Amino acid sequence: GESVGLHLPTLSVQEGDNSIINCAYSNSASDYFIWYKQESGKGPQFIIDIRSNMDKRQGQRVTVLLNKTVKHLSLQIAATQPGDSAVYFCAETNTGRRALTFGSGTRLQVQP
Amino acid sequence: DGGITQSPKYLFRKEGQNVTLSCEQNLNHDAMYWYRQDPGQGLRLIYYSQIVNDFQKGDIAEGYSVSREKKESFPLTVTSAQKNPTAFYLCASSIRDEQFFGPGTRLTVL
Known about the structure:
The complex is a heterodimer of chains A (112) and B (110). Chain A contains no helices and 10 strands. In chain A, a hairpin with a 7-residue loop joins strand 8 (86-93) and strand 9. Chain A has strands spanning 10-14, 19-24, 32-38, 45-51, 56-58, 62-67, 72-77, 86-93, 101-102, 106-111. Chain B has strands spanning 4-7, 10-13, 19-25, 31-37, 43-51, 54-57, 64-66, 76-78, 87-94, 99-101, 105-109. In chain B, strands 2, 4, 5, 6, 9, 10 and 11 form a 7-stranded mixed beta sheet that branches. Chain B has a 4-stranded antiparallel beta sheet with strand order 1-3-8-7, with no helix packed on it. Chain B is 0% helix and 52% strand. Chain B has 110 residues and is mostly beta strands. Chain B starts with a strand and ends with a strand. The A-B interface holds A 1, 3-8, 32, 34, 36, 41-46, 49, 89, 91, 93, 95, 98-105 and B 4, 31, 33, 35, 39-45, 48, 50, 58, 90, 92, 94, 97-104, 106.
């Protein structure tokens, strides 16, 4: 993904609403995708992953959708809570490469 | 406790000095990675190692060096050749595709 410099896209939601965070990836050869959550001053924390042979995967309160046709990934968070406030990154890789390529991130702000 | 540790948490360096950031994991993972994160940006890959005694350059390897003498350890040296080293440095390890991250080291050049 391209850098957006110091100004991350920000999504503000009310507590209890559903959140949708989007990510466009660049490499059509990518076959594995991960969403990470990063709180200020900490390392990224794994949320959910999906392989290219799937288009949807659900976890606890989170769902990842993959649209390979338009190279688009989304993260849906149900019943968003103040503890969900963080920066969210998508990452992509392919089996041959192993190392991840990260998107530029989206800041989620949950208003009480 | 299993996990990835990085030390120190904060590091200050004078211009022209080399510094080494530590990364240790007890997860028995084969692969380890170093990323750099600048304010408001995503992570960029510096170096990675898929097995002991082997490592590859990532997207921004210039001014950095690594070693992988032990499976558990993957130290990163930031050399004086790195023109803008002030950043947040993250180490990760993986056994397949999912990467687990350490808490990071914030390096500031004075």
